[in-house]
Amino acid sequence: MKSPRSLCFPFLLIAFLFSNAPSVFAQVPSKIQIDSIAQRGMRLFQVPGLAVGIIKDGKLIYSKGFGVRSLRTQQPVTSKTLFGIASNTKAFTAAALGLLVDEGKLQWDDKVIKYIPEFKLYDAYATQELTIRDLLCHRSGLATGAGDLMHDPDSTDFTVKDIIYNLRFIKPAYSFRSKFAYDNNLYLVAGEIIARVSKMRLEDFIEQRLLQPLQMNSSAASYNDCKLNTNIIDAHNKVNDTMRVVTRYTSTKDDAAGGIYSNVEDLSKWALMLMNSGRHGDKQLLSEQTAKQLWTPQTNIPVGNGGIYHTHFAAYGLGWFVLDVKGYKQIFHTGQDVGMVSEISMIPEIGLGIIVLTNNESNAAYAIADQITDGYLGVTGTDRCAEDLTRSQNNEKKTAERKAEVWKQVHQEQGNKISDIKKYTGNYHDKWFGNISITLRYNRLWFASQRSSQFKGWLYPYQKDTFVFKWQNSEIDADTFVLFGNGNKRTITLQSIVAGGGYNFESLLFEKLP
User: Domain named Beta-lactamase-related: which ranges (predicted)?
Assistant: First the structure.
C-alpha cells in the first residue's frame, strides 16, 4: 500500500552501472530496447522477476515477463503472472464508488456519516463534514501512515470495524482539507461504504462489477481469492543484504487500499477502459462523467524543480496522481507492499499506458516506467536506472550510517547496569492501538504488543530512559526508539530511528495501567 520512491541498493554496483549504461534513444523505443530496459533494471535492482505491459493507441502492443516468480521455485514470469498491485488497488475502490454514483445510490459529496453513522474523527468538524470525495483524495488532516499499525505488519487482530472506530482517537497533524498526506485507512472506510450500500462483500463487488466485466479473468480483489492460481509471484526483499523470499501480506482487512492481485494483460484492459472514457468494448462500464472525475485534480501537491518533464502542477484525484509532463496530462499511481512494487502510468493525449510489476521492494518499477515514458516523450540523455539506483544508494547509505551510530551507542551501554530495571516493566495502554507489555526476561526488557503479534522484540539500553527496539522478525527492518516518560516512567512514546522511515508512531501515547 505504501508508495515510496526512496528504496535503496548497495553502492558496489555504481561502477558497473555507469560502465554498462545503454545508449539513450531519441525515438519511440522498440521491443528490443524495452527488453533491454527491463532486463537491465531487473539486474541492477536485483529483482527476481517482473512484467511489463505497454498500451499505445488503444492496443496492448507489448506484454512480457522477465525472470522468475520465486527464487524458491525458479518458475518463469509470464505476462499472465499475478503480482500484488498494492496501492494501485485504490483506483479500483474509487471506480467502484463511481459505479454507485452512476446508479444514483450515492454522491461524491455525500457525508460519510450518512452511510456510517458511527464514523468519528478526533476533529468534530471533520467528522461532520468529511465526504466520500474526501476519503479518496488524502486531505483529512491525518498524517501520512497514521494508524497503519492497526493492519501493518500483517497478523494484527484489528478488524475493519475496529479501525473505523479507532480513528476517533488519532489526533490530526494538519487542518482539515489543508494539505495532502497519504492515507490508507480512509480507503478502508470507503470500502465499508461500498459494502453497506451494495449489500455485498467489498471483494465480491470489485470482482463482479469491475474485474469480470473487464474480462480480467485471472485477477482477484484479494490474495485469498487468487491463491489457488499457481502462476503467482512470491514476495522478495533483502534481509541482511541477501535477496530472499519473505512472508507475503495475506490479511484481507485492507483490501480496499491494497488487496488486488493482477497481471499486465488484465491491467491493460483496466487502463484501456479508463483511457476510453469508461467504455470497454461496446459497453459503457463507467459513465464519461465519472471516468473524468477520477482524473480530476482534487488535492494540490506542491512541486519543486520541474525537472526534464517541466512539471508545473501536481495533484491527487480520486485514486490517482495527476500532473503535467512535457505539456501533457499524466495519470499514474504506484503501489508497494511486502516484497512487491507496481506502477501504472497513462498519458491519454498520446494514447500511452505503461504497466510495470515487480516482485521485490526496489525502485526498478519506477525507473523502467520512466525510461519507457522518456522514449515516447522524446526525452534524451537520461538513464533512469542510474538516477534511481544512485538515489536509492545514497538514501541507504544515510540510513546505514544513522543506524550504525545508534547501535554503536547501544553497544557502549551494554556494560552499564540499569538501576532498578523493573521500574520499566508493566502494561501500557494507547487509546487506539491497545495494550503493550514490558516484561523482564533473563534480566532484559522484552516489548510485546497485545494486538499485533509481530510487534515484539528486545529493548536495548541507548540513553537515559531511552531504549532501542529491535523487531524479532528479521524481515522487518524498522529499528525504533522507545522513550519512557521522565521521572515516573508512566508513559511510553515511540520514534523511528531514521527520520521518515519505518512506521508512523506520532499519534501513539502509551500510559501505564494500574
Answer: 36-368
Query: What H or E segment, with its residue span, contains residue 511?
Result: strand 510-512
Q: Are residues 353 and 492 in the same domain?
A: no
* Per-residue three-class SS string for 73-125: CCCECCCCCEEECHHHHHHHHHHHHHHHHHCCCCCCCCEHHHCCCCCCCCCHH
Contact 271, 265 (CB under 8 A): no
Q: Domain boundary at 369, 397, 425, which? A: 397
111 burial (CB, 10 Å; 0-12 / 13-18 / 19+) is middle
Asked if residue 343 belongs to a domain, the reply is yes
Residue 12 pLDDT exceeds 50: no
Report pLDDT digits (tens) over 443-479: 899 999 999 999 999 999 999 899 999 999 999 999 9
Q: Which residue bears the cell 491525518?
A: 142
- H or E, element range at 437: strand 434-441
**What is the extent of the structural domain holding 483?**
414-512
Phi first, then psi, for residue 349 (nearest 5°) are -65, -25
Question: At 465, which CATH number?
Answer: 2.40.128.600
E strands, 304-384, are 314-316, 321-325, 328-337, 340-347, 352-358
> Lowest-confidence range among 138-142, 363-367, 500-504?
500-504
